């Protein structure tokens, strides 16, 4: 490819990450507008609009990467844009229905990015050899995350405040069709079957792994995000969670013993890769809470408009690009474990700043600092883990490499919101009882000073959990650093 063609190729693949994060923020930035439109009185129901999207992305990425390895990443990539377009259109028209149908539409919309993201990363991994070009492509892909999130938030807020919120979904649908046409022209055709994949070595789809894995992930995630609404005392929550765990045990057994072409090559994962993925789980679970509750804090507790809140969070686009490309410089000078430790520290500090933030404080104090450093957490951890996984697996398994990291990122966001929602609900109820209030002590329509104080206590409970996740990530990364040092000393 010429330099111009290479640039166009990286641009069209990075749009997968850009628009996926932009789509996630379609219901985060105008969160209070949606609450008013659907007459929602609690944070738990609102979180489903984002959690259902992330759940689908994180769950269906697993088989999507394997489908790309089997049938061609370009082909699955183009199908992903078509799916994304159709369900963005349908999601926009769901304004005629209720909360449940809109959440279902968001879940189906999330299957589009699930098809796009791992195959975009795999296209970069297959097209460029291990080295500077590939790492630069992954850095650009990582930088597209915060820029896409900021852009999606601004446009969703702008349309929600000045026009009508469904327009953000309809415009996204049109954009997806345009990108699909560009991908068909720009991305070169690929040879699906390489010499090492012929005959008995040709990969086959892992049906049992897909069935058990997808079922387990969906059931666990649904239980975690539904629990804040109906409480853990409801019998079906525990039943669904238990069934999901059993499915995941079955999935692991299938991957280890019952298939020659596993969705996740568990046996082949290096210790460094396992530690990196564990850090991704803790860190990005923390990030999902940080982002969602930051918008709630600014819009609901401080009373800022969706557009103003989007402007306040927009610096993530600038610092996100800086941190994404600094990953290349850092990885040439230190082990991945050190980069992950820095990223986990940013996750922890970014959440700590918001957990201790007063309602009536200038934006330029803790809020601004947190917004500045959180992209460091995202854009150091994601490219580092992606580069590590891509280098660890052969060319014909780049779809699997991309799937692992993207699955952990998106699924952790959704599960983190579920845990935080439960903490928020129980803390609010406990605080209400202390003040002699029973039932729902903090309905969203009530903006009295006492209710705002109760709501702030619940929000801080969620943020302290986010701080704990960041701290857990630091511990995991620290253990990885110690083990890598011992391995270096022993010459292993």
Automatic annotation (TrEMBL):
PANTHER family associated with the record: LOW AFFINITY AMMONIUM TRANSPORTER (PTHR42718:SF1), MAJOR FACILITATOR SUPERFAMILY MULTIDRUG TRANSPORTER MFSC (PTHR42718)
Keywords in alphabetical order: Membrane, Transmembrane, Transmembrane helix
Transmembrane regions listed in the UniProt entry: 46-64, 76-94, 100-124, 136-158, 164-187, 207-224, 236-254, 274-293, 313-331, 338-357, 363-388, 400-423, 462-483
UniProt cross-references to InterPro entries, sorted A to Z: MFS, MFS_dom, MFS_trans_sf
Main location class: membrane
Protein name: MFS general substrate transporter
One Pfam family recorded for the sequence: MFS_1
GO cellular component, one term: membrane
Sequence ranges assigned to domain Major facilitator superfamily (MFS) profile in this UniProt record: 6-489
Compartments, record wording: Membrane
Entry GO MF terms: transmembrane transporter activity
Organism of this sequence: Zopfia rhizophila CBS 207.26
Membrane-protein topology: Multi-pass membrane protein
């Amino acid at each position: 490819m010429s330099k111009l063609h290479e640039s166009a190729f990286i641009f069209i693949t990075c749009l997968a990450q850009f628009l996926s994060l932009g789509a996630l923020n379609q219901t985060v930035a105008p969160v209070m507008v949606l609450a008013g439109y659907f007459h929602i009185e609690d944070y738990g129901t609102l979180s489903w609009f984002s959690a259902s999207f992330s759940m689908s992305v994180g769950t269906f990425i697993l088989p999507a990467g394997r489908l790309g390895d089997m049938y061609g990443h370009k082909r699955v990539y183009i199908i992903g844009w078509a799916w994304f377009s159709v369900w963005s259109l349908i999601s926009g028209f769901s304004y005629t229905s209720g909360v449940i149908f809109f959440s279902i539409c968001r879940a189906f919309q999330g299957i589009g990015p699930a098809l796009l993201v791992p195959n975009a990363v795999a296209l970069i991994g297959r097209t460029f050899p291990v080295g500077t070009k590939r790492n630069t492509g992954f850095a650009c892909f990582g930088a597209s995350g915060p820029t896409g999130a900021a852009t999606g938030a601004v446009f969703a807020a702008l349309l929600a405040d000045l026009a009508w919120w469904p327009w953000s979904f309809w415009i996204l649908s049109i954009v997806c069709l345009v990108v699909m046409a560009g991908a068909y022209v720009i991305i070169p055709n690929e040879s699906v079957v390489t010499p090492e994949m012929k005959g008995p070595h040709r990969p086959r789809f892992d049906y049992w792994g897909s069935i058990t894995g997808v079922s387990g992930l969906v059931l666990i995630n649904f239980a975690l995000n539904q629990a804040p609404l109906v409480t853990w005392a409801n019998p079906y929550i525990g039943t669904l969670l238990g069934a999901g765990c059993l499915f995941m045990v079955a999935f692991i057994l299938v991957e280890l013993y019952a298939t020659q072409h596993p969705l996740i090559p568990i046996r082949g994962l290096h210790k460094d890769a396992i530690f990196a993925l564990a850090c991704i789980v803790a860190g990005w679970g923390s990030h999902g809470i940080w982002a969602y509750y930051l918008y709630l804090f600014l819009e609901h507790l401080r009373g800022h408009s969706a557009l103003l809140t989007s402007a306040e969070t927009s610096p993530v686009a600038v610092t996100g690009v800086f941190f994404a490309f600094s990953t290349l410089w850092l990885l040439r000078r230190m082990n991945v474990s050190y980069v992950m430790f820095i990223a986990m520290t940013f996750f922890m500090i970014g959440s700590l700043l918001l957990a201790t933030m007063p309602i009536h404080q200038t934006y330029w104090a803790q809020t601004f600092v947190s917004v500045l450093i959180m992209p460091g957490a995202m854009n150091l951890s994601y490219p580092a883990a992606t580069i590590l996984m891509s280098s660890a697996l052969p060319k014909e398994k780049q779809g699997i490499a991309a799937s692992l990291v993207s699955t952990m990122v998106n699924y952790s966001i959704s599960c983190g919101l579920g845990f935080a929602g439960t903490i928020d609900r129980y803390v609010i109820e406990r605080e209400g009882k202390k003040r002699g209030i029973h039932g729902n002590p903090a309905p969203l329509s009530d903006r009295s000073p006492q209710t705002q104080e109760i709501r702030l206590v619940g929000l801080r409970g969620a943020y302290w959990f986010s701080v704990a996740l960041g701290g857990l990530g630091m511990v995991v990364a620290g253990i990885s650093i110690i083990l890598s040092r011992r391995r270096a000393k022993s010459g292993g």
